[in-house]
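User: I'm writing a short report section on ligand binding and want a predicted complex to refer to. Could you take this sequence and GLP and write out the structure as tokens? A short remark afterwards would be nice.
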Amino acid sequence: MEIRVFRTDAEIGKTAADIICGCVREKPSCVLGLATGASPLPTYREMIAEYEAGRVSFKDVRTFNLDEYCDLPRDHKNSYYSFMVENLFSKTDIDMANVGFLDGNAPEKEESERYAAAIKAAGGIDIQILGIGRNGHIAFNEPSDEFTDEAWKVKLSDSTIEANSIYFDDIPMPRYAMTMGIGSIMRAGKIILIATGASKAQAVKDMIKGEVTPHCPASVLQRHADALILLDEAAAALL
Ligand code: GLP
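Assistant: Sure. The structure tokens for the complex follow:
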């Protein structure tokens, strides 16, 4: 793991976006694994700025998002699909035909197989962006007794429901989600994990300094050959 600590979110976003845009310039049809949540937003803003300045085009890029809620229509304002349309897809030239997304309303086994086959057919993920949950989850892989492999349907933990409920003002937050598994994440060529704020400090410490255990799913990144961890000072406070 390479760990870098920054003063501001904007610097983190610039660093991550520079790496991503560099990859896209070198390989215009590269495959990006994308995350939702607050952590990657400065990165997406920088990617949009690079696109608007004419310094990068995403038209041939293929993307796969990490996760999606179950029991929520894809076009609901709180779906992760809507999040990505609003915060990245609609503001760049990403071709929606090249966008891969888990369907949280499809049968689990078939959907898992479909997603695994689609990622494989695209040649695998070149760069995977990740955030981290307060309990050390990555994507929606909650702490558990074993590391998962391909996409699966997860019952969300109380900690995750508490953290994400603030976004749901019209309906109760879904209790289940479809998520890429730990194996699918670990097969990415490069991983960039972004964590900011004091609420992530313990999870960041467990991820970097703790033992590798599915009880802190992010700790598995210690075993990845090219994992870059971008932190602000608050998230790095316990290191
Ligand atoms: C959610 C997402 C994760 C994300 C995490 C942290 O549960 N499924 O992919 O990393 O929250 O979100 P945030 O970046 O908003 O703190």
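A remark for your report: The mean pLDDT is 97. The CA atoms of residues 7 and 44 lie 18 Å apart.
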